[in-house]
């Protein structure tokens, strides 16, 4: 399927502000980038580097006044990968690849080492078969028990906050899911990008878990994990995949996101 994503971000800048952006899509299996655009108005020079997780990061300085950052991507993508039968099982920590170990440790927003979250994880999924069954039970529990609502959480909200308050947005759902999976020694990471199936269009966050020797997508916001996605970035939590990190005096004025499916054209998996 060909899929197009577009985001327009407008800032009011009160003093020159250094920023790191993570707005360009990843190049990876199952996601073939046909074309993309990255534009800053007024135009300023920028540089780019690849972070520890393989995400493309852009660095530049926002000038005084109103600044608009527009990104567009058109890609060939497959629908969300289905869980095979038999379902993937749990991998012992000692058998995990080195590069996966990042995603089994606690992180800034995912305090999987806290007893309260560990107790909740075992309460929800402790009686299920380790691996996929536990992850899916966590995903379903969050979908059914955490209320989706804008304006009740912010950049400081952690998984523990969401577990206690039982309300938040996709970022909060994802942090809680990751924490509960890690509490069961299942590697989990946060992924952000475009999803075609959203009631209120926005840049979206979901989680991926490493089971059966592969990464699989789970989305606690959806009743059933489905749809087409363009991945922009992944990391341990929101600190690793922030859309824009600023070092100065600038205020986000607006964010407009569009997602369109264009035509059927599956991507071959390597």
TrEMBL record:
<dbReference type="GO" id="GO:0006508">
    <property type="term" value="P:proteolysis"/>
</dbReference>
<keyword id="KW-0645">Protease</keyword>
<dbReference type="InterPro" id="IPR002931">
    <property type="entry name" value="Transglutaminase-like"/>
</dbReference>
<feature type="domain" description="Transglutaminase-like">
    <location>
        <begin position="162"/>
        <end position="222"/>
    </location>
</feature>
<dbReference type="GO" id="GO:0008233">
    <property type="term" value="F:peptidase activity"/>
</dbReference>
<keyword id="KW-0378">Hydrolase</keyword>
<protein>
    <submittedName>
        <fullName>Transglutaminase-like enzyme, putative cysteine protease</fullName>
    </submittedName>
</protein>
<dbReference type="Pfam" id="PF08379">
    <property type="entry name" value="Bact_transglu_N"/>
</dbReference>
<dbReference type="InterPro" id="IPR038765">
    <property type="entry name" value="Papain-like_cys_pep_sf"/>
</dbReference>
<dbReference type="Pfam" id="PF01841">
    <property type="entry name" value="Transglut_core"/>
</dbReference>
<dbReference type="InterPro" id="IPR013589">
    <property type="entry name" value="Bac_transglu_N"/>
</dbReference>
């Amino acid at each position: 399927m060909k899929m197009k994503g577009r985001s327009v971000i407008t800032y009011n800048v009160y003093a020159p502000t250094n920023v790191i952006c993570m707005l360009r899509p990843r190049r990876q299996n199952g996601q073939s980038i046909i074309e993309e655009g990255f534009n800053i108005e007024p135009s300023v020079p920028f540089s780019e580097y690849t972070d520890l997780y393989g995400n493309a990061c852009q660095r530049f300085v926002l000038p005084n006044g109103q600044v608009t950052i527009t990104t567009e991507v058109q890609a060939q993508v497959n629908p969300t990968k289905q869980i095979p039968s038999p379902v993937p099982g749990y991998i012992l920590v000692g058998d995990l690849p080195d590069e996966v170990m990042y995603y089994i440790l606690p992180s800034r927003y995912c305090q999987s080492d806290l007893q309260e979250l560990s107790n909740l994880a075992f309460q929800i999924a402790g009686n299920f078969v380790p691996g996929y069954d536990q992850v899916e039970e966590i995903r379903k529990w969050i979908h059914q028990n955490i209320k989706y609502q804008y304006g009740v959480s912010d950049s400081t909200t952690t998984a523990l906050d969401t577990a206690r308050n039982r309300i938040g947005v996709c970022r909060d759902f994802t942090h809680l899911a990751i924490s509960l999976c890690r509490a069961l020694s299942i590697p989990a990471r946060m992924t952000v990008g475009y999803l075609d199936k959203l009631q209120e269009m926005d840049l979206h966050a979901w989680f991926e878990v490493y089971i059966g020797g592969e990464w699989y997508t789970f989305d606690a916001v959806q009743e059933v994990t489905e749809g087409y996605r363009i991945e922009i970035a992944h990391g341990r939590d929101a600190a690793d995949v922030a859309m824009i990190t600023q070092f100065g005096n600038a205020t986000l004025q607006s964010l407009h996101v569009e997602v369109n499916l264009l035509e059927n054209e599956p991507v071959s998996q390597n």
